[in-house]
Design goal:
- InterPro entries: GRV2/DNAJC13 (IPR044978), GRV2/DNAJC13_N (IPR045802).
- This is DnaJ homologue subfamily C GRV2/DNAJC13 N-terminal domain-containing protein.
- The protein has 295 residues and is an alpha+beta fold.
- It folds into 3 domains: 98 residues, PH-domain like, CATH 2.30.29.30; 123 residues, Pleckstrin-homology domain (PH domain)/Phosphotyrosine-binding domain (PTB) (PH-domain like), CATH 2.30.29.30; 48 residues.
- It has 4 helices and 19 strands.
- Strands 11-10-9-8-14-13-12-15 form an 8-stranded mixed β-sheet.
- It is globular and about 65 Å long.
- The relative contact order is 0.11.
Length: 295
């Protein structure tokens, strides 16, 4: 038990009933443990995790979805302080990914770049109508993630391969590519979607992952799922902060950070959503030593 970095007593829900288990996180694997005997009942690599879902109705419930050799596995658990468990899981996965990056520096140095445009939204005109604009960016496919450089403010969002739910190409416009993660979609326009999809799938296969690729939705449907349209229920907003975002020109943009019970949402001064991520992706908050205002 000493090799576990974090342990939580959870309730495991399955078809045959509910049982108590200890959910423990090691440097390379996580496991469920019988609390009475201390024996490990199941153990998985962090690589196996395909997504983590949280229940909207039950604030204590979450599900860890994993890819198996023959079928998908889902581990449905409950804990009174769900956020603490998910943060510990995110920290462990991040440490595992960083360790893997250290071992694969030579491979990581060979990121495969693809020029693209990312959809962004602004208020335009006297009627303050919302318009979509395309901003140039670069998508880089690495061994464990797809990185986006450039865009609205030259920040660097990325998509971990283990968390990508699907790659969606518009059936009526093959230049439209949507990357979906945690039911949040980012839409890109790229001249060679088949090339970048092939690169992503090859990276995923190296982790024994098979990512679904769909081509049965129109461009309009994919646009409607863009993260800009992620609904933020006012009743679910926990807190809103005035913040400044760094830009690529060594300046700052004013905006807001909105925290809900499941999401962290970036909004500009007009309250348009510019970026969304599930809270489960946050594994660490670091404050800059030279300035207490920067984190």
């Amino acid at each position: 038990m000493d090799q576990f970095m974090d342990r939580f007593l959870v309730i495991k829900a399955k078809w045959s009933g509910k049982t108590e288990r200890i959910l423990g996180f090691k440097p390379y694997t996580f496991a469920t443990i019988n609390p009475k005997t201390g024996t490990i009942t199941n153990e998985w690599s962090y690589d196996a995790i395909s997504s983590v879902d949280v229940s909207i109705d039950d604030k204590s419930e979450f599900t860890i979805n994993m890819l198996g050799l023959k079928k998908r596995t889902s581990l449905k658990l409950r804990h009174r302080y769900r956020a603490e468990v998910l943060q510990a899981l995110a920290r462990s996965r991040a440490a595992f990914a960083m360790e893997r990056k250290t071992k694969n520096k030579a491979v990581l140095a060979k990121l495969t770049p693809f020029n693209a445009h990312v959809e962004s939204f602004i208020l335009s005109g006297d009627d303050q109508s919302v318009q979509c604009e395309l901003l140039p960016c670069v998508l880089e496919v690495g061994v464990d993630a797809v990185y986006q450089t450039g865009g609205s403010s030259d920040r660097f969002p990325y998509f971990e391969l283990t968390q990508i739910q699907s790659l969606d190409v518009a059936m009526d416009d093959p230049s439209v590519l949507a990357i979906r993660i945690a039911d949040i979609t980012q839409v890109f326009h790229i001249d060679s979607p088949n090339d970048i999809i092939r690169a992503i799938l090859e990276s995923a296969i190296s982790h024994d992952m098979i990512l679904p690729v769909t081509k049965d939705s129109s461009a309009g449907i994919l646009h409607s799922k863009q993260m800009h349209y992620t609904s933020v229920d006012p009743d679910s907003v926990l807190v809103l902060y005035d913040v400044q975002y760094p830009t690529g020109q060594e300046g700052v943009d004013n905006g807001f950070i909105v925290l809900t019970d499941t999401l962290i949402v970036e909004q500009d001064m007009t309250r348009l959503t510019t970026f969304v991520q599930p809270l489960t992706k946050i594994y660490e908050i670091t404050r800059l030593v030279m300035s207490y205002r920067i984190f």
